[in-house]
Write a structure and sequence with these properties.
With 328 residues, this protein is of the alpha/beta class. The protein folds into 2 domains: 2-259, Rossmann fold, CATH 3.40.50; 271-321, no CATH class. Helices cover 34% and strands 22% of the residues. The protein is built from 9 helices and 12 strands. The protein has helices spanning 9-24, 38-46, 48-65, 86-94, 110-123, 157-169, 181-194, 234-243, 306-314; strands at 76-80, 102-106, 129-133, 144-149, 172-178, 198-202, 222-224, 250-259, 271-280, 283-289, 295-301, 320-321. Helix 6 (157-169) links the parallel strand 4 and strand 5 (172-178). The chain is globular. Bound molecules: S-adenosylmethionine. Residues 22, 33, 35, 49, 52, 81-84, 86-87, 107-109, 112, 135, 149-151, 154-155, 159 line the site of S-adenosylmethionine.
Amino acid sequence: MSQGLSKTRAEVKDLQRLRQLFLEAPAHDGLADYWADETLLSLYDTTFARRIGWKWDAVLSELAARCWKIPSNIRRWVDWGCGSGIAGEVLISRRHDELPEAVVFSDRSLKARLFASKKASEISPQAIKITHESPELLQCGEADLLLVSHVLNELKTEQLNSLLEQAKNAGCLLWVEPGTPHCSKKLSEIRDELLNTFDAVAPCPHQLACPLRGAEGDWCHFFAAPPPHVFQDAFWANFSKEFNIDLRSLPVSFLVMQKKGLQPCNPSGNDRIIARPRFYKGFAKMLVCGAGGKAQLLQLQQRNHKAEFKMWEKDCFFAEITSARDSD
Ligand SMILES: C[S@@+](CC[C@H](N)C(=O)[O-])C[C@H]1O[C@@H](n2cnc3c(N)ncnc32)[C@H](O)[C@@H]1O
């Protein structure tokens, strides 16, 4: 990671412009193609995309910890709106024993498709066929796993609708977005729209309508932990300063769905903590989503949940309440 790190002033400026575009995207109805050249994709890939990769790492680690497997009918992974291809890259690097026959990178930008597919070819085992395809020509089916990452802010309604048609045809869906209210609510709507034909694998502990979809002031999101080395790395310290980004904070909204009947979902039945608890002296308050499809505020006493408090203070991504509820 460290070689790409000393950016020139011009490169930092390019990245700042790109970030500004991303921050302002929700106020616009779609964005014009901004991938000017391979250099910009490469700059993005070594900076913002790495942080997105840490979110994918967190999601995939949790899925693995919960023994979720990619359904066995899946033959192809499709990274839609691939940009520099971080979603495909992380999945290829982490799921060695579940690799597909083919991975396809799709983006309206040909430069992005070429960049992502070339990079993936360099890290993938030879047996995997790596291709790229324009979104207009792409046809998803039941043997496809669709990967979607950080695109919601940029899509016009009709573009989102055509992505949803692809999602409906796919066998499985892994979707990761920033943990903002806007993206989270959109993802909840997408989840509810797909529920007729898909099971919600994560983050939901139930198959009912999302209780947070219309909630005022609450939204379904979590905080991923960056890899610890980041906090000792001069590049990331510099990055944090240049872009005024708090490295510790990686808010993420995500959605994992699989076509009904493909394989069991195995929900634990436990309440799941949304975002993270707020700690007070001797107790904590937290919003949880439960197996009954309801979200509620809980107050837990530290003395009754000592081990969990210790764990949550360090890392609380996608945590469940596994000990008995307080009676007080
Ligand atoms: C913020 S980037 C995210 C890239 C990558 N998925 C990631 O997580 O790093 C959004 C990507 O969506 C692509 N995009 C935007 N509108 C699109 C559309 N209508 N069809 C396909 N791709 C689109 C952009 O070209 C860009 O590569």
